[in-house]
Amino acid sequence: MPDHLLEVRNLSVRFHTAQGVVNAVNDVSWHVDRGETLAILGESGSGKSVSSSAIMNLIDCPPGEIHSGEIWFDGKDLLTLSEEERRALNGKRIAMIFQDPLSHLNPVYTVGWQIAETVTAHGRPGQMARDRALELVRRVGIPNPEAALKKYPHQFSGGQRQRLMIAMALALKPDILIADEPTTALDVTVQAEVLTLLEELQAETGMGLVLITHDLGVVAESADRVVVMEGGKIVETGTPHEIYHAAKHPYTRKLIAAAPGQGEMRVPDETAEPILSCRNMKKSYGAFDALKGASFDLMAAETLAVVGESGSGKSTLARLILRLEEASGGEALWKGQDLLQMSPREMGKVRRQIQMVFQDPTQSLNPRMSVHDIISEAWVIHRDVLEKRRWRDRVVELLEQVGLEASHAGRYPHQFSGGQRQRIAIARALALEPDLIICDEAVSALDVSIQAQVIELLGRLRDELGIAFMFIAHDLPVVRDFADRVLVMKSGDIVEQGPVRRIFEDPREGYTQRLLAAGLDPDPEVQRQRREARLKLTA
Amino acid sequence: MSATTAETTPAKPTPPAKRGYLGMLWADKFATFAAIFLIIVVFCALFGPLLLGDAASGQNLRARNAAPFTLERGFLYILGGDALGRPLLPRIVVAAQNTIMVAAGAVAASFLIGATLGLIAGYSRKILSEVIMRLADVIMSFPSLLLAVIVLYILEPSVGNLIIVLAITRIPIYLRTTRAEVLEVRERMFVQAAQVMGASTFRIVFRHILPVILPTLVTIATLDFAFVMLAESALSFLGIGIQPPEITWGLMVSQGRQYLTSAWWLAFWPGLVIILTTMSLNLLSSWMRVALDPTQRWRLEIGGKNA
């Protein structure tokens, strides 16, 4: 009889796929006690979500197969219980919240109904369920709770939706809450709030919290103990402090080294000439102003980071410069010519010089074209760049430049991992030998270690080829070691701009300070100080 | 999130050995038989009237409604005889020409026109798109057979006119599907990536959007094939489609209908051929959908054992 609240023992899960048997987790053991927060840290494909899926009975068998192991909860091995008994536990004793609350809330029901449903599904009367729903919505900090219960999921912001998911999960006062990447889709300031809320609720109810994450910052902020996973195995266990300062396993050390925001900051070249000067650029959708007059200069061969939370207008800015959307006003001078006034023909010529790398390489590469076709398409469109007989060699050259192999040219995008796909997208952007590459959240969808590699690649290309970058990101640490200058945006306005060192060490605007304070540092000590600073700012 | 998703697993170490399209066809046995059957049908359509034209129209009143599966009247009567004592087997072979011509012609014409208009309507957000859509609404709001009756009443009933009429009534199906798909695909990131690269509208539509929506359209077209065959038989039955002594499968079915209780084979055999043709087209189109999609192709390349 184990003495932990929840204990996973020697769990092995494998999946039968067309390519053969895949061992998703192999001989994994961990436990969590009452009032404790256990973080399961790993990158995509590490199997960090699989053991919690096994706990919640969410693994489809087949193709999945729980090969061996036990899951002890409350004196019983969950794997030996019937479907009926497990349903009674799910939601009531063990609850779960997910990464993307929008896809886990039903869009056609009000949130009040959905929270109440969790309660009535476990056999409580309707009135009691409604009272409980109101109490919960108030507790998770949704403004105007009575009215909120009658609203639909799309009427809330991302952070509020995650709060509602938490309310739903806590409806029956579970003993265990499993949170699978609960803050990955949220802005940094909202992320800090949600993590704080989880901590408060844990202190009130004494539940055990299992936090599945890829982010060392989240671990430093919230966890009592950490389990580091790689390739379906646990490589290391310990407190966040031990893991960060005395990691034993090389994988953990690599992960810590890859965390952004540790390197030397760059100093912008003061003598450079601007190649792009934007003045008072505006965009409104009806009565809503997405961009309220942005003015800035971008120098040749420099990296300008545009940082802001979702809805700040940073992507709109990029789309206006590229003429993917028409601006409502202002001008953008590219080497002296206004991009916003150009005819389609003139714009066609300029497109060669300004390229873009998108956030999600899975979507930005045509799934029906081979890598060779994707990269060489640029030369089909701009006939004068390269003669046809040199295409094959140049594709190979570009692939090698971004760290891929010549043999990859014949493959299709789905045969690559996320990081490799982003490299293909970068190679495509390089094919036209542009002067400026706009990266719209180009590394946000990637794992930390892959993120570091891609940023290193971009830095190398900048130094070797003298390309200027406009680097759009929501995450400050990512731009810290890469950018020359930083532009901070908030609700369609540029609130602050300056050299990277000035922004990070001496932020002048309150919003920039809040943004910096909300970022999570992988070092538990630094993070503790930061948390105090944050609480002071919000107080 | 879980380790099973294809995205998270690193690139396959060795891609399976590439097979040609014939190899991939062989990997799907149903599709192979479908292809063979369709080749036979096309062969009949091309050479049937030449080889068996006389046998198909020769009457033998002693063989009226002759039962199938006996060889006493010769091999041509193996499937029985019709109400005028004409052998069914050669009639089906000969009828293939008209049937396939009308069906393929109507489907191809409505496919081409519908898809083209759909691409225009989906990609241009201007008045043109509105005009095209309202035009489709007008055609759709009119019962298609009624339209056909009116048009064929005015025009001379002939194979050509029949194709035109059937094509017009089926255009909205392709038009609306294409437009809806284009509206979705044009917002995808890779279309924007092509725009950023400076690709022309023509290139974006034909290189990036069309290949994505083509499988859907081809699937609809194969289903439509059967519909068009039956619509043609309905028109023929009303006396405004193909007229005897010309024959089509649909016409044979409707002629055999009054003998269903006494001589089922009159309507059964041509009906069976219609079903088999449609089914073969369907099987082949679903094979094609897999074979043309790089993310699905492995199912055929590994030899079909897991497909």
Automatic annotation (TrEMBL), chain A:
The keyword Metal-binding does not apply. SMART domains: AAA (SM00382). InterPro entries: AAA+_ATPase (IPR003593), ABC_transp_ATP-bind (IPR050319), ABC_transporter-like_ATP-bd (IPR003439), ABC_transporter-like_CS (IPR017871), Oligopep_ABC_C (IPR013563), P-loop_NTPase (IPR027417). CDD domains: ABC_NikE_OppD_transporters. Keywords: ATP-binding, Nucleotide-binding, Transport. It is a peripheral membrane protein. One of its GO terms (cellular component) is plasma membrane. SUPFAM superfamilies: P-loop containing nucleoside triphosphate hydrolases (SSF52540). One of its GO terms (molecular function) is ATP binding. Gene3D superfamilies: P-loop containing nucleotide triphosphate hydrolases. It is found in: Cell inner membrane. Belongs to the ABC transporter superfamily. This is ABC transporter ATP-binding protein. It comes from Mesobaculum littorinae. The lineage of its organism: Bacteria, Pseudomonadati, Pseudomonadota, Alphaproteobacteria, Rhodobacterales.
UniProtKB/TrEMBL annotation, chain B:
Residues 96-285 form the ABC transmembrane type-1 domain. The chain crosses the membrane at residues 30-53, 100-123, 212-242, 263-284. Keywords: Cell membrane, Membrane, Peptide transport, Protein transport, Transmembrane, Transmembrane helix, Transport. One of its GO terms (cellular component) is plasma membrane. It holds the Pfam family BPD_transp_1. GO terms for biological process: peptide transport; protein transport; transmembrane transport. It is found in: Cell membrane. Belongs to the binding-protein-dependent transport system permease family. This is ABC transporter permease. It comes from Mesobaculum littorinae.
